[in-house]
């Protein structure tokens, strides 16, 4: 009798756990609020394909025009976040890039990571750049489980760089992809990541937090690609983001292309949301880079360079 009672109790616990792990379908809003709801969903679901001419120090002539895409800050916490990621992957494949760069914060925490990590892996496995997918971790990934997320990224075909580099030969020229681990998680080791990279060697640096540049500038990065800021989340015309204290390097580095010392930093606005499910003038982004050689002269740290080009917008169909 005792064994049977325990078996029934285990079955009940298993069913309850299964119910808790089942993703909840979003409730439909009242009819009167549906137009407003559709407007709100467009602000968080419509993905901008942002073309950027990306200046890279020491870029060889044979690498002019190489195409790369970046996505960041997925925060896959709901079915709609997964659908947005799947839409972004399809959009990237249509660009036919040479590289794809993933710059961290794939989930917000351990619970949602365990629920969605399998589908996350499957979505990323569909990426098919000619020269490879390279990934780093963000602060939320360390707070969730860096081990599980790293394993999922590798299983999807991505090369995960944790304070290390990988040289790639493309069009007969070599370029170093340098991955620096997360700053807020106290895992960033720029010197270790640049070990074996000569100062005059061309490099693309992946660093989740733009503030990593403060500790990397003396190592001679070719260009740095970051995320973390979600583009500032709420952006007011002629003023910019209301978020002032997120970055030590300066609030202008919350989004887009900016020059810092002798190299450029590009900060991707990310795909997902965290905590507040809101974006104002700050849509989700897939960055589409065309590599070009950076000019030899360097402006001051505070100078700002905007990217140019017509943005294409994609809608998530969840």
**What is the rounded distance between the termini?**
48 Å
Q: What pattern of helices and strands is seen along the backbone? A: HHEEHEHEHHEEEHEEEEEEEE
Q: What percent of residues adopt helix (DSSP H or I)?
A: 25-40%
In the CATH hierarchy, the architecture is 4-Layer Sandwich
Runs in which pLDDT lies below 50 for 5 or more consecutive residues are 1-23, 298-309
Write the CATH fold name.
Answer: Purple Acid Phosphatase, chain A, domain 2
So what's the CATH class? Alpha Beta
As a whole number of angstroms, the C-alpha radius of gyration is 21 Å
Shape: globular
| Number of strand segments | 15
Sheet with the most strands: spatial strand order: 5-4-3-2-14-1-15
Beta-strand content: 15-25%
Task: Give the tally of structural domains.
Answer: 1
The assigned structural class equals: alpha/beta
Task: Supply the CATH superfamily name.
Answer: Metallo-dependent phosphatases
Question: Count of helical segments?
Answer: 7
pLDDT average, as an integer? 83
Largest sheet: 7 strands, mixed
Fold topology:
Elements: H1 2-21, H2 34-45, E1 47-56, E2 67-71, H3 79-95, E3 99-103, H4 110-125, E4 132-136, H5 139-144, H6 146-155, E5 159-160, E6 164-170, E7 173-180, H7 190-193, E8 203-207, E9 223-226, E10 235-236, E11 240-241, E12 256-260, E13 263-267, E14 285-293, E15 312-314
Parallel strand pairs: 1-14, 2-3, 3-4, 4-5, 7-8, 8-9, 9-13
Antiparallel strand pairs: 1-15, 2-14, 6-7, 10-11, 12-13
Helix pairs in contact: 3-4, 4-6
Q: What does it look like?
A:
This protein is of the alpha/beta class. It has one domain: Purple Acid Phosphatase, chain A, domain 2. The protein has 7 helices and 15 strands. It has a 7-stranded mixed sheet with strand order 5-4-3-2-14-1-15. A 6-stranded mixed sheet has the order 6-7-8-9-13-12. α3 packs parallel to α4 and α4 (110-125) runs parallel beside α6. The longest helix is centred in the N-terminal third of the chain and has 20 residues, at 2-21. It starts with a helix and ends with a strand. The model is unreliable at 1-23 and 298-309 (pLDDT under 50).
